[in-house]
Amino acid sequence: MATAHNQIRSIDPDFEEQLLDSINRWVERELKPIAKRHDVEDIYPDHVVEQMRDLGLFGATIGPEWGGLGLPASTYVKIVAAICRVWMAPTGIFNSHLMLAHAIERNGTPEQKARWLPKLATGELRGGLALTEPDAGTDLQGIRTTAIRQGDHYILNGQKTWITNAYKGDVVALLARTDPVAQPRHSGMGLFIVDKPREGLTTPGKLPKAAYRAIDTAPIFLDNVEIPADQLIGGVEGQGFYHATGGLELGRINVAARGVGMAEGALERATAYAQQRHTMGKPISEHQAIQLKLGEMVTRARAARLLTLDAATAYDRAERCDMEAGMAKYFASEAARTNAEEAMRIHGGNAISQDYEIERYYRDAMLLIIGEGTNEMQRIIISRQWIRRNPA
């Protein structure tokens, strides 16, 4: 199995089948019974995190030489989709963690890889990616957090927000300005490995959210935080923007996989309910209006899966796939939202009851549409790449 994106990744089909079977059994046995309570009461699933460590999910895409499974993206997206069929939130815990590991594995110095990747692969250390700020989301060039070199360390000041694993996690890859007056703006940035605890670094607790509940999403405040200079990923200033955005293809494929799972999960719930609910003397699945909805939903879910596998396969072949990843993220996230909405219509009045859980799919789907680059931005990226690939 390969460990870098410039190498082709593959997996033994029998091993993949066994792995996916284990994941599916774990989802049914451990996640399905607790998802509703943890979402409604916003309870962090500590025991689920430990189970995911045992399953190797925190090292899923990290190379075997560092203790990870080294899975290709095409296998990883199937795992993510399988979990999201039942409950999307837990995938955020290891997805964000693996984006941190990806930044180090792809861009770090040999010393950084040796120091951090083995502990990230086992889940001994857990973390995420700290890019977003109150005034800078999709436009990362607008960040204001600074990292000023002083001798053998950097002094960090600023604020990050909406950072998954910021509160419960141990370490983040944090984007900051090493040269606040650099032009163009992206040329004056660094991506830093910031571990806790650090004097001056505070994470006051998870943010209240309408969706993506149970897991921690928190702000990070930095007040004269000292970070050793050897925790600048790659060891060279000015490369942080590229290190941060270099994983966007994989990140968008991850989000697409979540959308696939949620589109399929909403379809499954709607299918079951339509056969249980009777009106006018027959199951509503026999009414043409419901059949039209289900026909669209199953087609939409299948198309989302195929687009996502297409992007993941291109990624595994080490091909440029920003357009494919953008299409997958855009379509699969919209498929999740639309299927959730149609499933709510099929459920009728019961749709707004937390007992039926379908309303959670709708709430969570909106995160996918906004996160990892808004779908409006995805359409622009797709269009630009299409034009570049098809010049007149």
Topology:
Blueprint: H1 13-31, H2 35-41, H3 46-55, H4 73-84, H5 89-107, H6 110-122, E1 127-130, E2 146-150, E3 153-164, E4 171-177, E5 189-195, E6 201-202, E7 217-228, H7 240-245, H8 248-276, E8 278-279, E9 282-283, H9 288-316, H10 322-347, H11 358-370, H12 375-389
Parallel strand pairs: 1-4
Antiparallel strand pairs: 2-3, 3-7, 4-5, 6-7, 8-9
Order of helices and strands: HHHHHHEEEEEEEHHEEHHHH
- Estimate the strand proportion: 5-15%
Number of helices: 12
Task: Indicate the mean pLDDT.
Answer: 94
Name of the top-level CATH class of the largest domain? Mainly Alpha
Largest sheet: 4 strands, antiparallel
Number of strands: 9
Tally of distinct domains: 3
- N→C terminal distance: 40 Å
Biggest sheet, strands in spatial order?
2-3-7-6
CATH architecture of the largest domain: Up-down Bundle
Secondary structure category: alpha+beta
- Cα-atom radius of gyration: 21 Å
Under CATH, the topology of the largest domain can be stated as: Butyryl-CoA Dehydrogenase, subunit A, domain 3
Query: Portion of residues in helices?
Result: 40-55%
Sum up the overall morphology in one term. globular
Q: pLDDT below 50 for ≥5 consecutive residues: which ranges?
A: none
